[in-house]
Design brief:
The protein has one domain: 2,3-Dihydroxybiphenyl 1,2-Dioxygenase, domain 1. The protein is about 25% helix and about 35% strand. The protein contains 4 helices and 8 strands. It has helices at about 15-30, 70, 85-95, 135-145; strands at about 10-15, 30-35, 45-50, 55-60, 80, 100-105, 110-115, 125-130. The strands form 2 sheets. It has a 4-stranded mixed sheet, covered by helices on one side. Strands 5-8-7-6 form a 4-stranded mixed sheet, with helices on one face. β2 (about 30-35) and β3 form a beta hairpin.
Length: about 150
Amino acid sequence: MANAVHELFAYLIVCGAAEAIEFYSKAFGATEKFRLRDPNGRIGHAELDFGGVTLMLADEFPEYGIRSPKTVGGSSVTIHLHVDNADEMIARAVELGATLERAPADQFYGERSGSVIDPFGHRWGIGHSIEQVTPEEMQRRYNALG
């Protein structure tokens, strides 16, 4: 391929980027790399480190059509965090203001996982491995569900 992709970043738009940075730091252990503010104080760009993976985020800029899930009525994207202890991280996120969407449970694909909606409208799947499952076995188990 002549034009290879070198990295892929999730870039979240939030209503309240400064508060989101604080939430993601406390709930998920992210650390802030830096932030850029416009003259009105809005965060135009910030980067957080999630264990070596960068998440980018910014405040809403409706004048450019940049809107958050709260403004547009929800998000069609789920960000998945693979962690050491899903139950613990989900509980901490809920304590800090996230809404429990799906309680942690053992899943057919070999993970214990659940999901929350953060206070800014973004969905986070959070899980940890409980067994190694081949794609064929995953498909067999998936078929058996239906």
